[in-house]
Amino acid sequence: MESTFDINSQRRKIYKSNAIWIGSFFGGPLVAGYIIAENFKALNKRNYAIRTWFVTIISTILIFGGIFLIPNSEKIPNQLIPAIYTLIAYLFFAIFQEKQVNKYINL
User: Fold this and answer.
1) How many C-beta atoms lie closer than 10 Å to residue 52's C-beta?
2) For the chain, what are the domain ranges?
3) For 91, phi and psi rounded to 5 degrees?
């Protein structure tokens, strides 16, 4: 019997920049961290995935804890804070993953 090996069966799902934008804006910083960590797993960088979760949890606590400490926070536009952490998540993606994700997709 001859077994066949399909290279695509060993590939994990990987997320592109649009997933970062949409997921983090509507899902929050935890979704952004999940997407970035899953990309690191797909790229066989488990240590970076663990670090990503650590940074994500600390950032989420700081963001939501900080919202309560801002005086007159009701005057801040509702989309401003999500837009800021979405931009930060995208920058992390662009700096640490974009080139590797594009290589992975083009294999």
Assistant:
1) 23
2) 15-105
3) -65, -40
Contact (CB, 8 A) for 43 and 104: yes
- The helix/strand/coil state of 70 is coil
Tell me 15's DSSP state.
-
Q: Report mean pLDDT in 10-residue bins for the chain, 107 residues.
A: 50 92 95 97 96 96 89 86 94 95 91
**Among candidate residues 106, 107, 93, the one with its CA nearest the CA of residue 40:** 93
Please give the distance of CA 62 from its chain centroid, rounded to a whole number. 17
Q: Which pTM value belongs to this model?
A: 0.84
Q: Is 59 exposed, middle or buried (0-12, 13-18, 19+ CB in 10 A)?
A: middle
Residue 102 to residues 37, 83, 98, 107, Cα–Cα distance (Å): 16, 25, 6, 9
Q: Which residues of 74-106 are buried (b: 16+ CB within 10 A; e: fewer)?
A: eeeeeeebbeebbeebbebbeebbeeebeebee
Token representation of residue 50: 């663990």
